[in-house]
Amino acid sequence: MSTAVTRITAAAIAAGLALTLAACGGDQTPSGGTTSDGGGEPTGAATEGGGSLTGTVAADGSSTVAPLTSAAATAFRDVEPGVNVTVATSGTGGGFKVFCAGETDISDASRPIKDEEAQACADAGVEFTEIVIANDGLSVVVNPANDWAQCLTVEQLNTMWAPEAEGTITSWNQIDPSFPDVPLDLYGAGTDSGTFDYFTGEINGEEGATRADYTPSEDDNVTVQGVAGSEGGVGYFGLSYYEENSDVLKLVDIDGGEGCVTPSRETVQDGTYTPLGRPLFIYVNNAKYSDNPAVQAFIDFYLENEATIAEEALVIDLTDEQATTARTELDSLKG
Amino acid sequence: MSSSIARTAGRVTGRPSGGASSAPAGARILRSSTRRGESAALAALRLAALLSVAITVGIVVSLLIPALDFFREVPLGEFLTGTRWTPRFADASYGVLPLVTATAWATLIALAVAVPFGIGAAIYLSEYAPTRVRTTLKPILELLAGVPTVVFGYFALLWVTPLLRDTLGITLKPFNLLSAGLVMGAMIIPTVASISEDAMSAVPGELRQGSAALGANRMQTSLRVVVPAAFSGIVAAIVLGISRAVGETMIVTIAGGQQAQMVRSPGQGGATMTAFIANAALGDSRVGSLEYNTLYAVGLLLFALTLVVNLVAIQLVRRFRQEY
After folding, report:
1. Which CATH code fits B97-320?
2. Do residue A229 and residue B284 have CB atoms under 8 angstroms apart?
């Protein structure tokens, strides 16, 4: 929150957002608006008057980032009711596909853009800017009755999830001889999700490399249900899903080579929770940002309020350094 | 248009020689008429009949084309006999048997519930229940068929599975085909019961009276006279139940599990053909890719299976048909 407070240029934004977050979607007055009142940005978004913008902003991409963009969109509606922000969830890869075709203004991404995706953008003449908008941690969860797996190393996770494990690694005591002989019951992300790419890349060394005899789902609640209902259950998803379900699941510490680290806001933010802590991105279409006041106003608003939005979307906000970098990148687009 | 039909019908019945009961004569009169409204009505009716045929043909064609693409890359034998189904993973295999075993288990469990309870309910409603009970009970039973399947799905996942596991002590995975199948069976009961009851009610009362005259009691009459006489209708009811079970998607997707594995016991979870299609269609497979075409291959197999079930049923219905 503190990072955002220093950055906010119009008190009305905070007021509007606070109202939205507080509860009702009632009839808020859009009176204040976003007019630059001097503040930190002399040349900023001064051209557009508060509440007077119209147009649409299209975002698509990762289902992990979508809750953030949606929260931003909801709050933004109170500031600029004339701007319609749509947030679709085609997955990070699917989002880049339409983004590089110029169909969307913002692409939500839970991983950096791949070379071939960037090439597709370049081929289509779409220039973009990568903005780190929040930090996220993947959590490995087990059943509360599991009293043996307090901390797992990346090697143990690899033993559990490697492609070679399919059909052969079926019991916990194959992961570590000190673990009991309880059948492994694996749940994880579906193959289209950024979470899947991220987990398999970090744990198995290659994106998409995984054993296939587990329950894959695009719906993290399937993992919650499965792990909560099975003594030998183990699954992975975003840390926020753990926090929502901490009563039925148990969090596992991860040893990335430098001792066991409990995933938390601090350990993800300061980068000690490795390798399963990660930044979340939005990709901004440069031309749309410069030329479309609605897009510009929305993205500026999004970044200004990232801490509050991150809190609402159950991810971790930016460090001061990350926020400053993002602000600088966007300012350079305004020309 | 409708008024012109009514007028025509009135004219037909008004004729002393025609007779309203003679349908072919009526049809001939309609056809020979040259009035414009009538030919338009006829065209509209013909269009309505053709439309359903056209839609079916369209579905088959749209299934076939991507499925043929699929079978160009994956041999039919491998598809039908393979036991590893991982089309969406880097190390892809295209053996559909895991999906088939899951569908088979779910369907068998559902039928084990729906057939006895459905036919039992039909016998009670048709042979035992007083008219007053029947007229209240049957609509209530049919209400069960109106419950959205997503509700049944969560009912199976969040209520039936814990009940079976914690209260009855059955070893179950959190996602399993047993509770999905049981709940699916409950969902199908009204279908089986309602159609069977219609068939039994249509059995002429003379048969029951004849049976009673020979000294049979009510139970003997029901089981040995009415049920055999209504057999073709009961078969039709069961077949409709099978088709619904095979094609049911939401319950098995929610409660049955999404892991494609060879299902050897109902306590396991497994992805049925429909659950796979529902899940794969959620992701973003590239149009025309092999992964995308698997959807159509599985869809075609599903279509073929229900077609076979229906063809067998038509034969059964024909063979046991009783005309009174």
Report:
1. 1.10.3720.10
2. no
